[in-house]
Amino acid sequence: AQKVTQAQTEISVVEKEDVTLDCVYETRDTTYYLFWYKQPPSGELVFLIRRNSFDEQNEISGRYSWNFQKSTSSFNFTITASQVVDSAVYFCAIRMDSSYKLIFGSGTRLLVRP
Amino acid sequence: DTEVTQTPKHLVMGMTNKKSLKCEQHMGHRAMYWYKQKAKKPPELMFVYSYEKLSINESVPSRFSPECPNSSLLNLHLHALQPEDSALYLCASSPRGKAEAFFGQGTRLTVV
């Protein structure tokens, strides 16, 4: 069975601090996809990134960066110089190549204080 | 354009009511989904439609009835719901050949 663990329930930082959200996954499949989604209070899940299991390249997009390490089954997300608008619940998720189903972690609530 | 539109945004219904949730996308996506999200929990998959055919039903009670009338529209018909069905119902769609799903803003449903 597949599983995603986000051990950090809540994180609180002061604006401009860097913050890393942890994600650990479990699967026996060799082909899978990993995702990060952001859910602001409005409720919509906003797609941030997809990573394929065969592509361990790290990625940077503006203040966001992602570190994918198959050796530790981790897909961590770092926000550099956090801003108040980054306050949201962040979900890590996995999907097998053989299925449409997204399996989410329990989410990490990030509060960025001014 | 990655817009998935859901209506209504909020819905309050009694346990004997019949109502429908609507989801629309005009991006040509051929996979569409319904997810249910209880407060402070992650979303959980309910149904998947692929090319307008029901592909996955995650053992959802029959009081929830999905419908995909065409490639742009997805409905969720609700009947005889229970208060524990109160949740945020999220619709999503995926582009052909891509694994990511794009979500709508959801319908916040309260059953009284």
- Secondary-structure content class of chain A: mainly beta
Strand content of chain A: over 45%
Largest interface: A-B, 22 and 28 residues
The span between the termini of chain A is: 41 Å
Q: What's the tally of helices of chain A?
A: 0
Give the helices and strands of chain A as they follow along the chain.
EEEEEEEEEEEE
Rounded to an integer in angstroms, the radius of gyration calculated over CA atoms of chain B is 13 Å
The shape of chain B is globular
What's the Cα radius of gyration of chain A?
Answer: 14 Å
End-to-end separation of chain B? 36 Å
Question: What is the number of E strands of chain A?
Answer: 12
Helices and strands of chain B, in order, run as EEEEEEEEEEE
Tell me the structural class of chain B: mainly beta
Kindly report the average pLDDT value of chain B.
95
Largest sheet of chain B: 7 strands, mixed
Helical residue percent band of chain B: under 10%
Quaternary status of these chains? Answer: heterodimer
